[in-house]
Amino acid sequence: MNPKIITWAREKAGLSVEDLAEKMGRGPDEIRLWENGRDTPSYVVLEQMAYRYLKIPLAVFFFPTPPNIEDPIKKFRRLPSHELKRLSFDTRQKIKLAQAYQESLEVLLEGFSKRKFIFRELSPVGLDPSEFAKKTRDYLGISLRQQIEFDSSETALKAWRAAIEKSSIFTFKDSFEDKFMSGFSLVGDEYPVIFVNNSNAFSRQLFTLIHELGHILYGVSGVTDFDESYIDHMENRQRTLEITCNKFAGHFLVPNDSFREDIQYYHATGSEAIFEIADKYCVSREVILRRLLDKEVVTREYYEKMATEWNKEYLGRGKKSAGGNYYLTRLAYLGEGYTKVAFDNYYKGRITKTELAYHLNINSHSLPKLEVYMR
To answer: Residue 190: phi, psi to the nearest 5?
Structure first.
């Protein structure tokens, strides 16, 4: 075994010696002995460390030198260094999973010519966020009337997600261990993807989805954090982009033409109107409050006060209990578009059953039931 590989794999996973020791139920000094070659873990322990904790093939520990694998975090170098360090092991694994889905899409969509490419056909050049948001809404084909008629933010999320996937941006969901992480996006010449934290409320998931859509259309991978204070520590150019994506998402979900009437209603009714307006557009209260701030209807102090209160309220909630239907959950995580493309490849004989399970990231024994629920 090459002890240097342990250090390489641990650092690549974003774990300190203490972090890995805690996960494995061992002392930090024992990990250090392994890394400096003065002691060696048993084969069973090495196997657990590889597959359960560091998420790498066991064989890598016997390579003469660390493999040259691109660090997925490099895609987010625009973030402040302290924010990159804060990305948890779980979030880093989600980013790796997103890259794996991108690689799967290269296989699954090879030869599919009849596709719309929103990220190629739309350009933000010369347009402010409001104009570009309107142009994007028109492209995706869901009218404001349709949005207002959605019966819930969950319905709205599903509709916008389906429309985005038809435009060749595939969206995935997962339950993040880090409650502060709302989601992220990875740009790509062919297969950009969006990942959304399923643990958040549907209204927050919807804003994350559109915010990350903005990142892809502006051509830069993004991370959406629950606490937006990191924006203040960005360089000017990157801070401007993050603020632009926030404005894009706000104008997209709450268009100017319609919002003028809502502002009048707010003036007549007061702060209670925020809840009603949010329900109207199937968005969170914070989205409406942000739009009111943009229109200089409320002060920055009032916005920060209310946003902080609502965030504390959210973070104070207990964690969602485990359970539910496994197959429906998997379909929600994978998305209808990606799941259908994978099964279509299987039906046409382009991939085997084992390969289908690999692309869907599930056990092959689960495929028949997943297919039933998909249908």
So the answer is: -120, -40
pLDDT tens digit sequence for 271-293: 899 999 999 999 999 999 999 99
Query: What residue has token string 């402040």?
Result: 80
Whole-number Å distance between alpha carbons of 209 and 100: 20
Residues 106 and 249 in one domain: yes
**210 in Cβ contact with 156 (< 8 Å):** no
**Total of domains in the chain:** 3
Q: What is the pLDDT of residues 246-267, one digit of tens each?
A: 999 999 999 999 999 999 999 9
Cα(122)–Cα(119) distance, integer angstroms = 6
Q: What are phi and psi of 174, to 5 degrees?
A: -165, 165
Confidence (pTM): 0.82
What strand order describes the sheet that includes 193-197?
Answer: 170-174, 193-197, 181-186, 222-225
In a domain, 223, yes or no: yes
Whether 73 maps to a domain, the answer reads no
Give the residue numbers spanning the domain of 341.
Answer: 326-374
Residues 281 and 363 in one domain: no
Q: For residue 90, give Cα distances in angstroms to 196, 242, 254, 255.
A: 14, 23, 33, 35
Q: How far is CA 53 from CA 56, 94, 106, 283, in A?
A: 9, 14, 28, 37
Q: What's the first-to-final CA gap in the chain, in angstroms?
A: 48
145 and 292 belong to one structural domain: yes
Say if residue 200 is in the same domain as residue 252.
yes
Same domain, 41 and 91: no
Say if 71 falls within a structural domain. Answer: no
